[in-house]
Automatic annotation (TrEMBL):
It comes from Microbacterium sediminicola. Catalyzes an early step in the biosynthesis of tetrapyrroles. Binds two molecules of 5-aminolevulinate per subunit, each at a distinct site, and catalyzes their condensation to form porphobilinogen. Homooctamer. PANTHER family: DELTA-AMINOLEVULINIC ACID DEHYDRATASE. Pathway: Porphyrin-containing compound metabolism; protoporphyrin-IX biosynthesis; coproporphyrinogen-III from 5-aminolevulinate: step 1/4. This is Delta-aminolevulinic acid dehydratase. Keywords: Heme biosynthesis, Lyase, Porphyrin biosynthesis. Transmembrane segments: none annotated. Belongs to the ALAD family. Its EC number is 4.2.1.24. It is an enzyme of class 4 (lyase). It catalyses: 2 5-aminolevulinate = porphobilinogen + 2 H2O + H(+).
Length: 328
C-alpha cells in the first residue's frame, strides 16, 4: 500500500464546517475603530479620492456615532477639518475649535457605548500643513511642537476624549503629554501612540479628506519605509514613556513591523488601515479588477493575523454588519 502522500492537510479544508472549526483568526466589531472627519462647513462633503467616505458636520456627527455604537464598534477616531488655519495651528487648542467641539458632540452621542478618540496632531490646523510648528529655517521644531501638543492634549481631555491618538511623530511627545495629563488630573485618559508611523504615499487621499495644503514631505519626522528595526525601537520608547496602546501605520505594507512589535509588546498593539489602502481596494473593485468584499475582509484578517489587537478602518461599520450577518 502506498504511503504517499504522508500528510494530507487538505483534510482540514474539506468542508465549510471543518474550515470554520480550524480557523485561527477572526474579526470582531469591538476591535474595529472608525475614523471620522468633521468639517466646519454647513453640509457634509464627499471626499473625491475616498469613494463612500464623507466629511461630517457637527450636526451629522451624532448619527454616525450612533451608527458606530449600534454596529458594536470599539470607537470612533475624530479628525477636525477647520475652516481657518494658521502657522501655530491655533484651532487645535481652541476649546471651540472644530475638533474639540466634535469631541464633545461625539462624547454626548456615544453615551458610554463606545470610546471617543481624537487625532492629536497639528497638520489639519496649520496653514503650512506640517505636523508641528516651524523653526526659522522652515523645519519642524520638535520641542516647540511638544508645547503645542501638550496644550492640545489638555484641550482634548477637557472636551472629554477617552483616547488621544498622538500621530505627530515628535520625539518625547508621549512623555510630555502623559506628564501634563497627570498634572491636570486627567489620570484616566488613554494615550494611543502612533509609534511606528511611516512617511507613506498611502496617506494620499487623507490630504483630500482634511483639505491639507502640505507642500514638501514629512520625511524629517516620520519613519523611512526601508527601516524595520527603527519601528520596533520607537514602539519600545513609547511604551517606556507611558503609552497605553501603540500603533503601526500604515497597516498593509508594514505587516512585518506590526508582527515584530506585536510579538514583543506587553500592551495592546493596533494598526491603521489608511486612506490609500482604502482607496486602492475601492478603486480596483470599481474597475472590476477584484472582488471588493472579499478583498476588504482579506486585508483586515491579514492585519489581525500579523498581530493587531484592533484596527482603524474606514470600512468599520460595513464590516461590523457583515460580522453580524455571519458573512465574515
Ligand atoms: C496626522 C495623520 C495623518 C493620518 C492620520 N493622522 C496624515 C499624515 O501623517 O500625513 C493619515 C490617515 C490616513 O491616511 O487614512 N494628523
Amino acid at each position: 500500500m502506498s504511503s504517499f502522500p504522508a500528510h494530507r492537510p487538505r483534510r482540514l479544508r474539506s468542508t465549510p464546517a471543518m474550515r470554520r472549526l480550524v480557523t485561527e483568526h477572526s474579526l470582531h466589531a469591538r476591535q474595529l475603530v472608525l475614523p471620522v472627519f468633521v468639517t466646519e462647513r454647513d453640509a457634509p462633503q464627499p471626499i473625491a479620492t475616498m469613494p463612500g467616505v464623507i466629511q461630517h458636520t457637527l450636526e451629522s456627527l451624532p448619527d454616525v456615532v450612533n451608527e458606530a455604537a449600534g454596529a458594536g464598534l470599539g470607537g470612533v477616531m475624530l479628525f477636525g477639518v477647520p475652516a481657518v488655519r494658521d502657522a501655530l495651528g491655533t484651532g487645535a487648542t481652541d476649546p471651540d475649535g472644530i475638533l474639540n467641539r466634535a469631541i464633545r458632540v461625539a462624547k454626548d452621542a456615544a453615551a458610554g457605548r463606545l470610546t471617543v478618540q481624537a487625532d492629536l496632531c497639528l497638520d489639519e490646523f496649520t496653514d503650512h500643513g506640517h505636523c508641528g510648528v516651524l523653526d526659522a529655517d522652515g523645519g519642524v521644531d520638535n520641542d516647540a511642537t511638544l508645547e503645542r501638543y501638550v496644550a492640545m492634549a489638555l484641550a482634548q481631555a477637557a472636551a472629554g476624549a477617552d483616547i488621544l491618538g498622538l500621530s505627530g511623530m515628535m520625539d518625547g511627545q508621549v512623555a510630555a503629554c502623559r506628564e501634563a495629563l497627570e498634572d491636570a488630573g486627567f489620570v484616566d485618559v488613554v494615550i494611543l501612540a502612533y509609534s511606528a508611523k511611516y512617511a507613506s504615499a498611502f496617506y494620499g487621499p487623507f490630504r483630500d479628506a482634511v483639505e491639507s495644503t502640505l507642500s514638501g514631505d514629512r520625511k524629517a519626522y516620520q519613519l523611512d519605509p526601508a527601516n524595520a528595526r527603527e519601528g520596533a525601537l520607537e514602539a519600545q520608547r513609547d511604551i517606556d514613556e507611558g503609552a497605553d496602546i501603540i500603533m503601526v501605520k500604515p497597516a498593509g505594507p508594514y505587516l512585518d513591523v506590526l508582527a515584530d512589535v506585536a510579538a514583543s509588546a506587553s500592551i495592546p498593539v493596533w494598526a491603521y488601515q489608511v486612506s490609500g489602502e482604502y482607496a486602492m481596494i475601492e478603486m480596483a473593485a470599481a474597475a472590476g479588477a477584484i472582488d471588493r468584499d472579499r478583498a476588504i475582509l482579506e486585508s483586515l484578517i491579514g492585519i489581525r493575523r500579523a498581530g493587531a489587537d484592533a484596527i482603524l478602518t474606514y470600512w468599520a461599520i460595513e464590516v461590523a454588519g457583515w460580522l453580524r450577518e455571519g458573512r465574515a
